[in-house]
Amino acid sequence: MKVLITGGAGFIGSSLVNLLSGEGHEVVVFDKMAEDRREGRVSYVRGDIFDRKHLGEVLSSCEGVVHLIGLPDARKAQERPHLSFDLNVVSVEAVLEALRDSPGKTRFLLPSSAAIYGVTRTVPIPEETPAAPVNVYGYHKVVAEALAETYHRCYGIGTTVLRLFNVYGPRGAGILNLLVDKHRRGESIELYGTRQVRDFIHVDDVARVFARAAATDSLAGQVVNVGTGVGIPIQRVVDIARERLPGLRVVSREAPGGQGLYDSVADVSRLRKHLGWVPEGGDQKLKSTLEVLLS
Questions:
Q1: Domain assignment of residue 184, yes or no
Q2: Most CB atoms closer than 10 Å: which of 36, 58, 217, 228?
Q3: Is residue 41 part of a domain?
């Protein structure tokens, strides 16, 4: 399979590129941070996602597209909603339009987010849960998902939406990275709602889900949670970090009136049904990632 990965130089993209090329697939990375070159089975193309002519030319020879361009930071999205709309919505429409004009029926994989669920008391959270986002980032992800569904229903493009839960890894910007960075700078960190439970999934497992989903025809037109199904309290992540960073200074606070505090764990039944596999949750990969961060 020849796969186009937009934003392939980023956090999830780089892991997916390594996995797909290692499995013998041809990979094209389309990224404005890339330099035109070829390394083994991977071609890097410097390109702007909003240059639709160039995007269409690159896409035309590919059998699958994984769209990883976006603004994943909810805080930045709230501060700069127009930038979030361009990267999280308009870029999706640009790829879907290029696919509509493409002669073949190319698979399209779109990462979404558990942020679309907002505050929910149903845990684990099934995909049928109504969207109730609480911030700009979540709303823009809802719009992006609607675009993917529209182009699937109206134009026959095999879209699959993958709702990612808490992705972490050495190159990421999650809580482990933040704790290590603060400790190295001798700074304390304030965390709200450390009793909250989250579904933490390693970036390499996310890449495996994308790779398998791209080759699974039954997922065309589907929305799938991507998590482990295992909930870990934020306080437990802090405790894991303290095992290796005994001087770590964390101030745990509760939001006023308990506002905005909720648990978020994926119902992974649909993932297991279609892929026959669910990533492993628990402490061990968190501990291994911490060791990499400290090496």
A1: no
A2: 228
A3: yes
37 located within any domain: yes
Please give the tally of structural domains in the chain: 1
In degrees, to the nearest 5, what angle opens at C-alpha 10 toward C-alphas 28 and 58? 25
CB 290 within 8 A of CB 240: yes
Residues of the domain holding 90: 2-168+202-228+266-280
Would 224 be classed as within a structural domain? Answer: yes
Does 262 score more than 90 pLDDT? no
Helices (H), the chain: 11-22, 52-59, 74-79, 81-85, 91-100, 136-155, 175-184, 203-214, 234-244, 269-275, 284-294
pLDDT in tens, 149-200: 999 999 999 999 999 999 999 988 889 999 999 999 999 998 988 889 999 9
Q: What is the CATH number of the domain that holds 117?
A: 3.40.50.720
Rounded Cα distance, 62 and 157, in Å: 14
Query: C-alpha 270: how far from its chain's center?
Result: 17
pTM: 0.95
